[in-house]
Known about the structure:
The chain is α/β, with parallel strands linked by helices. It has 20 helices and 30 strands. It is globular.
Amino acid sequence: MSDYAPSTEFADQAVGKAGLFDEAAADHEAFWAARAHEYVTWSKDFDTTLDWSDAPFAQWFVGGELNVAYNCVDRHVDAGNGDRVALHFVAASGEGRSISYADLQREVAKAANALESLGVAKGDRVAVYMPMIPEAVVTMLACARIGAPHSVVFGGFSAEALKARIEDGEAKVVVTSDGQFRKGKAMPLKTAVDKAVPGTTAEKVLVVQRTGIDVDWDDSRDVWWHDAVDGASEEHEAQPHGSEHPLFILYTSGTTGKPKGILHTTGGYLTQCAYTNSVVHDVHPESDVYWCTADIGWVTGHSYIVYGPLANGATQVLYEGTPDSPHQGIFWEIVEKYKVSILYTAPTAVRTFMKWGREIPDKYDLSSIRVLGSVGEPINPEAWRWYRDVIGGGSAPIVDTWWQTETGAIMNSPLPGVTALEPGSSQRAIPGIHAEILDDEGQPLTEPEQVGYLVLTKPWPSMLRGIWGDPERYKETYWSRFGPKYYFAGDGAKYDEDGNIWILGRVDDVMNISGHRLSTAEIESALVSHKQVAEAAVVGASDETTGQAAVAFVILREHGESADAQGDELVTELRNHVGQEIGPIAKPRSIMVVDELPKTRSGKIMRRLLKDVAENREVGDVSTLADSSVMSQIKDGIDKPSSD
Length: 644
């Protein structure tokens, strides 16, 4: 029996009930048709729930018509909730302003009119390269209103990365800002657009004046937001679009070649985003304040800032800054000020907060928090427990969600009012999703602790509809490993003895050491469970003897003794600790104590760069790192492999 069963009080008020599992098991298509009618307002009802005749190309809610922006904004105003706060915007400086649904409706209408005046029509693509400001959300909704698919590019990407995405999507307009605030400083953003746009299909650049820094200006191409949008009409009729009309393209890195443009469409995507946000995050729009800390440049920001919560009429926090600026307690200051009740963040952030120490969050009143969420990678059990105890007051359920850019919305997760929680596990597929773990031959695994491949066995509404402009790559990438019947997510997984699913990271993060398949995530979790380790990254490096060997990079807790003071003793202790936690075969070949790990600005650890170091290769492209000097420090400090 889990120590983390939901309280009766929580279960009684929860949106997601156990009966959803039975309903979904009884009739897959009828279940999703019911969700589509429950969560979405259709201008024309659909006549076919699912057309899977051209598998793996799905069509959901065929014949139905809707407008996503109407669903996210106007219908809440029409229902009398125009005064409800949609966004509590918190600037990087800590200053805030609140935007109601009525305010948002006016701004989206004006932005849609402005984009149309710049030549954007239904079907045209719009590239969005912006910081976390309300205008970014408004732009995405204005595109959805027009039926112009948006392609949001993370503001930390280089001019070259932006250009590749503009070219691949053939964007007609780029929306950006003069700059963005980073740790109190105004940093340029439009300069990257100026480098990226020449020679592409982009005809106009719409620019928000965010920082006031000087920018180069091309009068024939560049348009200020305040000139085009502020004076535009507040009236814009939301036209219905077919349920399979493209909503957005979002690029994700491929293992080789150019980035993959993941295509999502309208009706199925909105249905699953709204449903999952409602039942997984347990959102009660009339009383909750919800905060997803992701950037809109990633799918989490699309699904769980812009589309899911706004479709549900939720009130949410939109934060422009980073967790450590203007101070290390800013997250908790925001929680206290706005009485945030649902917090959805990444394990990397949780481990960073652990490293800084609980005395920081302990200074703030976090009693408003009733649900915590985790997204982006598996969360190790120790970080899970810290998150619940320190941030969740020892009682808030944690929904550990597994999903991908490609899946569009949450696939595996506990339901907070139903599931007895297991720290570190995403537990099971949510109602309406069908997942299995297969062995190398494609046979289902049933025994606990056998490592295999996670697959999805039935189509789902928010699934990607293809790779933009490359249907063959779509089939090859996602539907070939186990035949056209199974979507292969690229992740390794196993069951525990209770039948919970444990995600073990990308299969290229599953090492084969002397014939044993070991997950880098498992070894990382074991290292972080040691009292002196704050964070760990493990990569598989080629090894003459064992085929592959684990190489670990660890950051120590600030309260621990320095690595220099302990020398090889600490490394030996850590290796033995992993041996105890997992088994001798899992002991890292070498462990390197570092001050920082290479991370992107969204906090994702770039393990491929660590693999370059582990295999003594030249370090690859560091342009997406928040601090590119980190790799030089790691290279300079690399130690000889430790020995038993």
